Each structure stands twice: as C-alpha cells, then as structure tokens.
Amino acid sequence: MPTAADYRDTHRELVLGCQRKDRAAQRALYGHYAKPMYNLCLRMLKHAHDAEDVLQVAFVDIFGKIETFNFDASISAWIKRIVVNRCIDHLKKRRLLTTDFDPGRHDAAVEPPSPAPAVSAQGMSVERIKRATRQLSEGYRVVLSLYLFEGYDHEEIAQILGISVGTSKSQYSRARKRLAALLNESK
C-alpha cells in the first residue's frame, strides 16, 4: 500500500529537472498535468478559451515557482493549488464570483445545508451533468467544483475564496439544489 511519502515523491525526478530549468522535464511535467488541470479550469470557468488562458498563466507561475517546491506535499496537490488560485483570480477580475453571494445574509442566519432533491442517476450521461453544471452561476459552480470535484472542505473553500464557512456551505447547498433542478428539467 502506498504511503504519504510515496505520493510526495511522485514525479520527483521531473520536478528536480524542472528546478534545474531542464526543458525536457518541463515538457514532461506539463504533458502529465495539462489535461487534468485544463478540466479543472473548465469546470470552474465554464468557457474553454478562459480555461486555456488560465491554464497557461498557471503553468508560467508553476515553472516560475518550481524551485520553491520542497516535496512537503505531492507535486499534483501543489500544482492543483496554483491552478485553483489562478481560476479564482480570473473570476475575481471579472467580478462574477461574488454576484451570487448574498451580502445581506449573516453567518448566524445561514441555513444548514439540506439534501438536494433526489435525482436519479439512471439515464444520466456525463455530458448532461456537465451541461447542467455549466448552467450554474459562477459562484455556485466554483463552490460546487471545489467541494464536490476537487475535494476541498468548506473551511478551505472559505479561505481560498475569502468568504465565511457558512457562506460556503449555503452556496454548496444552493448549488446542489439548482443542479438537481436543472437535471430534472432536462429529462
């Protein structure tokens, strides 16, 4: 069974090559992570051209900061964090991220997350789910993507987005309800 150290050392030689500015190592690292990181960008940003642009900016950052990577975590987690941060920066620049957050609500008034309406997975294609997810507003889609697809918890999401934990939870709950409604509508 792999240990935490095994995951931290994944692609160690590639990273060391990148730290030495070895172009072949950089191409190999990019080739390994570009597609999954593009998919992450696409889930968060909705538009292919935005995802491509942010991915390129993220990899410029990655290669510019690779000498600071010290193998305390896995390289994939480190890369993912940079990509997520670039996506969030992009959304903030467009000022779309906060349009769904209700500034009139206070943490004390935030409802606990409730289960989303039931959606039968039978007959549901991946493409149908992707289409419905793209229809979510920016704020809902970002929180849903970070929590459901990227595995961040609400405390991490709150820190990343600069929102409260309660807001993260309520956004996630609302996003799930809206996604379920969209999936039920498209039957």
TrEMBL record:
Q: Where is the RNA polymerase sigma factor 70 region 4 type domain?
A: 127-179
**CDD domains with a match to the protein in the record:** Sigma70_r4 (cd06171)
Which terms are listed as keywords in the entry? Answer: DNA-binding, Sigma factor, Transcription, Transcription regulation
- What is an example of a GO molecular function annotated in this UniProt entry? DNA binding
> PROSITE patterns this protein is in?
SIGMA70_ECF
Q: Which residues form the signal peptide?
A: none
Q: Which Gene3D superfamilies match?
A: 1.10.1740.10, Winged helix-like DNA-binding domain superfamily/Winged helix DNA-binding domain (1.10.10.10)
Q: Where is the RNA polymerase sigma-70 region domain?
A: 29-95
Give the family from UniProt. Belongs to the sigma-70 factor family. ECF subfamily.
Q: What is this protein called?
A: RNA polymerase sigma factor
Source organism per UniProt? Neolewinella agarilytica
